[in-house]
Write a structure and sequence with these properties.
The chain is an alpha+beta fold and about 150 residues long. The protein folds into 2 domains: about 1-40; about 45-150, Immunoglobulin-like. About 20% of the residues lie in helices and about 40% in strands. Strand 2 (about 55-60) and strand 3 form a beta hairpin. The chain is elongated and about 90 Å long. About 15% of the residues are buried.
Length: about 150
């Protein structure tokens, strides 16, 4: 009977040693995540996504001028008028036309106040909404996308 207690004591010591080691590793990972060392925002690439038809060719956020610049290309097969572009925390840019196959740059002034802000070195993450009127049918349409970029 004494031999059975020794085996269970060895097994318990084995499990406790590995349990403490795993607990220390989890606490270290939690501390790194809490202090932002493991923040996924630092590793994710910049992206600008829109539904098919209007393509986001390039984008840039400037902290010095508090401006978001987006270059759009019309690939819908028809000309558009009254193109408006809206981004989270930024004023709208409206009234432009975009011919089929044409590419145009839009500059939006952004707020300095509450998030999302354009502080240099931070990430801008917001919705990108586009309205346009089909020049052939005079019907107005809305597209919704997203933009994530590092502020320069």
């Amino acid at each position: 009977m004494y031999k059975m207690f020794r085996k269970s004591q060895a097994a318990l010591e084995f499990l406790m040693t590995y349990g403490w080691a795993i607990l220390v590793v989890l606490v270290a990972i939690g501390a790194l995540a809490y202090f932002g060392v493991l923040s996924p925002d630092k590793f994710l690439p910049s992206k600008c996504t829109l539904p098919a038809g209007i393509a986001c060719m390039d984008h840039r956020a400037s902290g010095g001028t508090n401006q978001l610049s987006v270059t759009l290309r019309n690939g819908m097969g028809f000309d558009t008028t009254s193109v408006g572009i809206y981004a989270t925390g930024c004023t709208a840019s409206t009234g432009n036309s975009l011919a089929n196959g044409q590419q145009t740059n839009y500059n939006l002034a952004c707020a300095v106040g509450p998030p999302p802000t354009l502080a240099s070195g931070s990430k801008y993450n917001g919705d990108l909404n586009i309205t346009y009127t089909n020049s052939e049918t005079q019907l107005t349409h809305k597209l919704q996308g997203a933009i994530t970029t590092r502020v320069e």
